[in-house]
Design goal:
The complex is a heterodimer. Chain A is built from 16 helices and 10 strands. By secondary structure, chain A is an alpha+beta fold. Chain A starts with a helix and ends in a 13-residue tail after the last helix. The relative contact order of chain A is 0.09. Chain B is built from 11 helices and 11 strands. Chain B starts with a strand and ends in a 6-residue tail after the last helix. Classes of the chains: A alpha+beta, B alpha+beta.
Chain lengths: ~375, ~350
């Protein structure tokens, strides 16, 4: 009778150590299987206790020990010396190795699958802003932009003549752009002494006092504005905003004091491809508007020459606009000796532009 | 009564590290691989695997430690903290620039200060909770540790002491650090036994003063040397300004070498003292790492990372843990029958940023 034979098989008893989870006492025990679904734990000189196998799990295992834990009894640990009876070992669930999901597929398969997913995430993270940007309604972007910058408060240079000159420049480059409507571009000069201009969400363009002071030629200012207008029209700003809402934002936000944060207003960064495109557009815009591109080229020339020595205003501009030297070349080459160029602003407008930020701020600020 | 202790086995260490770097290699390698292909998400599971190994290779009075924390609970803890910090993130990202753009720098700075205070408070709570979490997941002979306190009061104490110390330009650092250590550990327990720390800043002042004085002395020495050699150079007719150069070199060396070294010198003693004044029931702790030992650890970590082109970074946790265990001592004995199971609340999730990013909880 085979069944009787199986039952009468001599029990393999293993010596083990039991911690009961109640106190730190160590109990030497003998362990063996009791039927199909129990193990029998017999403390020295004490009555045996049967524990259902499905309450047990392997907490840890190595070449020396197998540590078994018990559900519902925190701290209950049965420590068996290796090699453990393979019959018993086979009935205990494997402990997780790499983690539930990865164990299910196996390390190699999981790694391959995760690599594909990671690659896709990286690619999408990189190109998605460019895809998404055209679909962001301008009114949304305008709301976000207005929420961020408002009317610039005390930072804004409040000279009606200066504003008129800036608007005239924009009109010259992009006729109709300053008229109210969905395509309106709003330009402002700010009392901040850095050499920079920027396109920010909501079709705002801002020019800093430092840039006005360092660019006495309105044709060069037209070149800078043409570049920023291109960023707006191509929706590079939206693209940068979408990108900014991604992971990179976390890192940047926790650094810097007030000074750094003032620049953060314009801190959205464009990709190099965006910059090149904005330059190409700016050259076309200048040509269409009949504005001499050479002062813009000269400005970039001056900036690239400053790279080595006096870095004060130059670096600000160069950081987000790479390769001044080649840019200068592009603008210079677009000069057409046959064309008839007209100054971007008349002398009165020029004077108004230069003195746009001469009125003091309404309240003393940090800059 | 069943007393076990280190006294009967005087020759053998009561705390031993039994791991080996070869045995750990498969864990380290697969952790690096999985962290890369999950873009970092696996780091929580990696930390759990690392700890499970390191704890299991740490023997305390003849028995292994066991780590029962999981990657999943650490990940969930991280998500909770992230959700908690989201308003702060939104403020820094949008509201703050918006206020600055409107010229309301004063109001912006005010809110910024307020938020920094709140974040400092949360930082204190996070440190407390990281320690509590680790103890609650650490088992020895079927017993775990923990704390009955949620750490909110500790956060308040933390912010007060940090503020006071900052007013003294951190001269009061040893008082701050020891008081916080004492407070933290006196609220922790293992099983039915409370940890007791009596650490004070006594004897730690001189090394802390050295953090301030040695760089200044070095700078003065550099200037004097430069002046002496400078006269020689001037006599030789060179036009360079050696004094200025020496000040710059002195500042550089001071900032990048002397100050960290002196700080390490202080921390070495601080850790020894903190351990010596700590007890758990009749067990006393000890720690014997000198400044030189710490320096060897850090330089070793650095060299390892460089020569392995960064892969060695995955061994820093291993090396740091092994270092702590190898220098740790336990004296006295423990009544294992009286050491009953902890009745502290076992937190469901890993708690605090500190643990999510594996910032040291000691």
């Amino acid at each position: 009778m085979p069944s009787t034979l199986a039952r009468s098989r001599p029990q393999k008893l293993a010596r083990a150590i039991l911690y009961n989870g109640v106190n730190a006492e160590r109990y030497p025990v003998e362990v063996g299987l009791a039927g199909e679904d129990m193990i029998r734990v017999t403390p020295e000189g004490d009555a045996p206790v049967d524990v259902p196998l499905d309450e047990l799990a392997i907490a840890d295992e190595d070449k020396v020990q197998l540590i078994v834990s018990r559900r519902f009894v925190p701290g209950w640990r049965l420590i068996l010396d290796q090699p453990v009876d393979p019959d018993l070992r086979a009935r205990l669930p494997h402990p997780p190795r790499y983690g539930g999901w990865i164990d299910r597929f196996g390390l190699v398969k999981a790694t391959a699958a995760l690599s594909v997913i990671a690659g896709a995430v990286l690619v999408i993270g990189h190109v998605a802003p460019r895809w998404i940007a055209p679909f962001v309604p301008p009114s949304w972007e305008r709301n976000i932009g207005d929420a961020i910058v408002g009317d610039f408060g005390e930072l804004r240079c409040r000279s009606p003549q200066g504003d008129a000159a800036l608007n005239a420049l924009v009109e010259r480059l992009d006729p109709g752009a300053t008229r109210p409507g969905p395509r309106q571009i709003r330009i402002a000069a700010l009392h901040v002494d850095i050499f920079n201009a920027a396109a920010i969400p909501g079709a705002h363009i801002i020019v800093f006092k430092g840039a006005i002071d360092e660019t006495p030629n309105p044709d060069a200012m037209a070149g800078i504005l043409a570049h920023e207008i291109a960023h707006v029209r191509r929706r590079h700003v939206t693209e940068a905003l979408v990108r900014e809402l991604g992971i990179g934002a976390l890192i940047r936000t926790f650094a810097g004091g007030i000074g750094a944060n003032a620049e953060q207003v314009v801190g959205l960064s464009f990709t190099r491809a965006n910059e090149a495109q904005a330059d190409a557009d700016a050259i076309a815009t200048l040509r269409r508007a009949g504005i001499d591109p050479r002062p813009t080229a000269a400005l970039f020339d001056r900036l690239s020459n400053k790279e080595g020595g006096d870095t004060r205003p130059a670096l600000q501009f160069l950081e987000s606009h790479p390769g001044s030297e080649s840019r200068a070349g592009n603008f210079a080459r677009s000069f057409d000796p046959e064309a008839s160029y007209r100054p971007a602003l008349d002398p009165a407008g020029m004077k108004a532009l230069i003195s746009a930020c001469d009125t003091p701020k309404r309240a003393p600020g940090k800059h | 009564m069943d007393m076990i202790g280190s006294a009967p086995v005087a020759q053998e260490r009561a705390v031993r590290f039994t791991g080996s770097w070869r045995e750990y290699l498969p864990i380290a390698a697969t952790n690096v691989l999985l962290i890369i292909v999950t873009l970092g998400v696996y780091r929580f599971w990696a930390a759990a695997r690392q700890r499970r190994y390191l704890w299991s290779r740490t023997e305390v009075i003849g028995d292994r430690l066991e780590w029962s924390g999981t990657g999943k609970e650490m990940f969930i803890g991280f998500l909770i903290v992230t959700a908690f910090l989201l308003p702060f993130f939104l403020f820094f990202q949008f509201l703050f620039p918006a206020m600055v753009a409107r010229g309301k720098e004063g109001a912006a700075a005010g809110i910024l200060l307020l938020f920094e205070v709140v974040l400092l408070y949360l930082g204190g709570v996070a440190r407390f909770r990281a320690l509590r979490y680790r103890l609650s997941r650490t088992w020895w002979r079927g017993i775990r540790g923990g704390s009955d306190e949620p750490g909110w009061n500790y956060g308040g104490e933390y912010i007060g002491r940090v503020a006071l110390a900052s007013i003294t330009m951190w001269i009061a650092w040893p008082w701050m650090a020891t008081a916080l250590f004492r407070s933290r550990w006196n609220q922790m327990s293992f099983g039915s036994l409370p940890f007791r720390s009596t650490v004070t800043a006594d004897g730690l002042g001189r090394r802390w003063a050295a953090v301030y004085l040695v760089p200044i002395a070095a700078l003065i020495l550099a200037i004097v040397l430069a002046a002496v050699t400078g006269f020689g150079a001037a006599a030789a007719g060179t036009k360079a300004s050696p004094t200025l150069a020496a000040i710059l070199v002195g500042l550089f060396v001071g900032v990048y070498l002397i100050i960290p070294l002196m700080t390490l010198h202080w921390y070495a003693k601080y850790y020894r003292k903190a351990a010596e004044t700590m007890s758990l029931g009749d067990l006393d702790f000890g720690f014997d790492a000198t400044t030189g030992d710490w320096l060897k650890l850090f330089l070793g970590n650095l060299v390892l990372a460089v020569v392995t082109l960064g892969l060695g970074l995955s061994y820093w946790g291993y090396r740091n843990w092994a270092f702590m265990v190898r220098h740790m001592h336990l004296f006295g004995e423990i009544d294992v029958t009286a050491l009953a199971q902890s009745t502290t609340h076992a937190p469901g999730e890993a708690e605090g940023f500190a643990d999510a990013f594996d910032i040291g909880a000691i």
